[in-house]
Specification:
Peroxisomal Thiolase, Chain A, domain 1; hydroxymethylglutaryl-CoA synthase activity; HMG_CoA_synt_C_dom; Thiolase-like; alpha+beta; 2 domains; binds coenzyme A; Hydroxymethylglutaryl-CoA synthase; 17 strands; nine-stranded mixed sheet
Length: 387
């Protein structure tokens, strides 16, 4: 039985800051951000968006009435949750008015959460092949202002409808995993900015990539030449480039050249949005599908998922005959080109407002043109609006 991704939706803020301008304000050479880190633009999330609304705006693009009726499970991967108890999936189901004969759950393991969601969805669909599962990766990536992590912020949501007989990609049975109890990136309770040991985290990402890739090749009986493209978790796009270099080192130059071309297509959207944490790998998948002219049904894509703390997984899938039609249903390029550039001063002001507030407050939502918006907190409960 084939199981995989049938539809993908994506949403991010309508505001961004230009990385060249941010570099100038931080007295850095712009080439460091543009080439050294590999980021061109960074999404700036409005205070009237949280992970629930980002996800709702992404799901809204893909979910038909027929999908709603068959939905059995919603798995929400995030590390920017809005409640210590109630899951973001429950908030989302309420906001989208999903049928209530449903299971909802939030999954957390840094940037790995959505990948865990895809794994769990496959198990669920083996038991309930007639059902559909919604897997979300939604986050707001926040480091401190003027810290080394600042140029690797961003935010947004990717929503995937996982089904049997999927029309975009069918996952293959073999995958390889590895974990470490590591403090490379974490966010203590009560803090709204992540702490990161950047160099340590990069090294662990690359070490675990090698570990799971070697293991995957043994168990799947496949090697580099069997893949059309590799996509990576991209906290910033240069790290994926380092990952691809480590996989291709010493390999045939002609094959490598194709893989690096595919990587450029796969990092295009991420370089314009920044880090989505849980959604980053899947935004890169979308970027590959919409920006690579050469993909064909039947080709194999390799996925490297990494979540600090740390969990790594390498898995693969085969593109399905209708993948081009499915991807052409939404114009994601337009979401990115239709955004408005804001100044570094305006970004800093929005950054200060983008914190979880539990006290009574009402936000002005008229400036946010998204369909689903966060409106503030009333009697300790989060309130949402549909525009
Ligand atoms: N032109 C071109 N490249 C330049 C440059 C210039 N003028 N100046 C610096 N660079 C390069 C550096 O050589 C380096 O490249 P390398 O990694 O290939 O060596 C890169 O730009 C970054 O420079 P560096 O001095 O390492 O930057 P930094 O100390 O400010 O930190 C990160 C960069 C990525 C470590 C930091 O942004 C970070 O920690 N981000 C968070 C990462 C994360 O999210 N990790 C957890 C999830 S996986």
């Amino acid at each position: 039985m084939k199981i995989g991704i049938d539809k993908i939706g994506f949403f991010t803020s309508d505001l961004y800051v230009d990385m060249r301008e941010l570099a100038q304000q931080r007295q850095e050479d712009p080439a460091k951000y543009l080439i050294g880190i590999g980021q061109k633009k960074m999404a700036v999330i409005r205070p009237t968006q949280d992970v629930v609304t980002l996800a709702a705006n992404a799901v809204d693009q893909i979910l038909s009435e027929a999908d709603r009726q068959k939905l059995g499970l919603v798995i929400f991967g995030t590390e920017s949750g809005v409640d210590n108890s109630k899951s973001t999936a429950a908030y989302l189901a309420g906001l989208l008015k999903l049928p209530e004969k449903l299971q909802v759950v939030e999954v957390k393991q840094a940037c790995y959460g959505a990948t865990a969601g895809l794994d769990f969805a496959q198990g669920y669909l083996c038991l309930h092949p007639e059902k559909k599962v919604l897997v979300i990766g939604a986050d707001i990536a926040r480091y401190g202002l003027r810290t080394p992590g600042e140029p690797t912020q961003g935010g947004g949501a990717v929503a995937m409808l996982v089904t049997t007989n999927p029309r975009i990609i069918a996952f293959e049975p073999n995958s390889a995993v590895a974990m470490r109890d590591a403090n490379d990136f974490w966010r203590p309770l009560g803090e709204s900015e992540a702490r990161v040991a950047g160099k340590f985290s990069n090294n662990l990402y690359l070490d675990l990539l090698q570990e799971v890739w070697q293991e995957y090749q043994k168990t799947a009986g496949l090697q580099l030449i069997d893949f059309t493209a590799f996509i990576f978790h991209l906290p910033y796009t240069k790290l994926g480039l380092k990952g691809l270099r480590s996989l291709t080192s010493g390999n045939d130059l002609a094959i490598n050249s194709q893989l690096f071309k595919q990587f450029e297509a796969a990092r295009s959207y991420n370089s314009q949005v920044g880090n989505l944490y849980t959604g980053s790998l899947y935004l890169s998948f979308l970027s590959l599908l919409q920006n690579s002219p050469k993909l064909q049904a039947g080709q194999r894509i390799g996925f490297y998922s990494y979540g600090s703390g740390a969990q790594a997984e390498f898995f693969s899938g085969l593109l399905q005959p209708k993948f081009k039609e499915q991807i052409a249903r939404n114009d994601f390029k337009q979401i990115l080109t239709g955004r408005r550039k804001i100044s570094v001063a305006d970004y800093e002001s929005l950054y200060q407002q983008q914190v979880i507030q539990t006290t009574e407050h009402k936000l002005r939502t008229t400036e946010d043109l998204a369909k689903y918006v966060f409106a503030g907190t009333h009697e300790s409960q989060r309130t949402y609006e549909i525009h």
